[in-house]
Specification:
Blueprint lengths: L2 E6 L3 H16 L5 E7 L3 E3 L13 E3 L1 H7 L2 E11 L4 E6 L4 E5 L2 E4 L3 E3 L16 H13 L11 E5 L3 H18 L6 E5 L11 H14 L1 E4 L4 E5 L2 E4 L4 E3 L2 E4 L3 E3 L16 E2 L12 E3 L4 E2 L13 H20 L12 E5 L5 E5 L4 E5 H15 L7 H7 L9
Helix pairs in contact: 1-6, 1-8
Protein name: NAD(P)/FAD-dependent oxidoreductase
Keywords: FAD, Flavoprotein, NAD, Oxidoreductase
GO molecular function, one term: NADH dehydrogenase activity
Length: 400
């Protein structure tokens, strides 16, 4: 009977885990271990692009790729993890409950935006998952059918972190594409920080401020959203902003499945893992991507909830979960090079290096890199066995 490596999730971490595990098994000529991916759909949803228009196109089918390398895909929503019994319970495509036994588990279920218990939060949109991003796009496209008012032409973005800034920077162009080039649009970022772009540090702050001024983006600093309703938001300082569109980008937390693994978690719900991405205290249970609190160097830096880190984490987790079954040496996760590329809409983009985010390229030079990242670098490899397995080498550096 075959042993089974079960990977929960088909995002960046899950997909690359499956490919990397298969790569190591292939290198050792092992056909007695199956790699199984359990996820709601056999597609990579390119979440870093959900702030862009035509969001329904931001998916990459994985069926042919999995078939090419011999990965088994099971469509379903994971609901229960029994680490003692080595089983995962899930709802299949028909809504029926079923279970999968495993010999090794890789939890790669990702993260989700935190919607607080706030009055009217149901009126806010987000760009956290495909369905919500599509709902936002439909809403924006329908604005042209509403009476021309200041409220119709106003978007409030709650949160001035990476996602909030990229969403806000794209909004002027998205609104004018719907309402007309001459439309008097207004985009407002509400952030608790004391400076524009404070969440990203001093490195790119001046560029963010410059881009905001050029694009006409307003910032409400040292404040947060106290309540949302169908007509706008009320801020914590009492200010009222009339807006037909509110986008929530504040706070991200690891998928709640992590709570079913009896192990230490950080404030974001991520499981503490060792250098090989095995969950502390659980032989045979690995975590990767946004559910793993992993040290990426020996300087005290930890992986962020980003596709840049999830790709490398996935390659490492897949290799090491297979290595644990084969009895061969693992390859410790290491990702000392850290870069960011922040899209700032029509202004361009900012490409930085290092944890202090020193700018290397900006405006159109930065935009060219961002477009390359978003359209090529973060997508799955070709559905060719040799090409795909070669791309899953955990020693390949990731800069996207």
């Amino acid at each position: 009977m075959k042993q089974r490596i079960l990977i929960v999730g088909a995002g960046f971490g899950g997909m690359w885990s499956a490919l990397s595990a298969t790569r190591l098994l292939d290198q050792h000529g092992r056909n007695d271990v199956e790699v199984v991916v359990l996820a709601p759909q056999a597609e990579l949803r390119v979440r870093p692009r959900f702030y862009e228009p035509e969001v329904h196109k931001m998916v990459a089918p994985l069926g042919d790729l999995f078939d090419a390398v011999g990965v088994t895909f099971i469509k379903g929503f994971a609901e229960r993890i029994d680490v003692e019994g080595k089983r995962v319970g899930y709802r299949n495509a028909a809504g029926e409950f079923a279970e999968l036994a495993y010999d090794r588990l890789v939890l790669a279920s990702g993260s989700q935006v935190v919607r607080p218990a706030m009055a009217g939060i149901e009126h806010a949109f987000d760009v956290d998952n495909l369905e919500e991003a599509v709902r936002l796009e439909r809403h924006l496209n329908a604005l042209a059918e509403r009476p021309a008012t200041a409220s119709r032409n106003t978007v409030v973005v709650a949160g001035g972190g990476f996602t909030g800034i990229e969403t806000a920077a794209e909004m002027p162009a998205r609104l004018r594409a719907v309402l007309g080039d001459d439309a008097d649009v207004r985009v407002i970022v509400v952030d608790r920080g004391h400076q524009i772009g404070a969440a990203l540090g001093e490195g790119p702050r001046a560029a963010i401020a410059e881009a905001s001024a050029e694009l006409g983006i307003e910032w409400r600093l040292n404040s947060g959203v106290a309540s949302v309703d169908a007509a706008g938001v009320t801020l914590a300082n009492g200010e009222r902003i009339e807006a037909d569109t509110v986008v929530w980008t504040v706070g991200v937390r690891a998928h709640p499945l992590t709570e079913q693994v009896p192990a230490e978690r950080d404030a974001q719900g991520r499981l503490h893992v060792d250098a090989n991405l095995q969950v502390h205290g659980h032989d045979g249970v690995f975590a990767t991507g946004d559910v793993a609190r992993a040290a990426c160097d020996d300087q005290g830096n930890h992986a962020l909830m980003s596709c840049q880190h999830a790709i490398a984490l996935g390659r490492s987790a897949g290799n090491n979960v297979a290595a644990s079954l084969l009895g061969v040496s693992p390859i410790p996760y290491s990702q000392p090079k850290y870069v960011t590329c922040l899209d700032l809409g029509a202004w361009g983009a900012v490409f930085t290096e290092g944890w202090d985010r020193q700018i290397k390229f900006e405006r159109q030079e930065g935009k060219s890199i961002k477009q390359q990242i978003n359209s090529v670098w973060i997508y799955p490899p070709a559905a060719d066995r040799a090409t795909a397995l070669a791309a899953a080498d955990p020693l390949i550096p990731v800069v996207a």
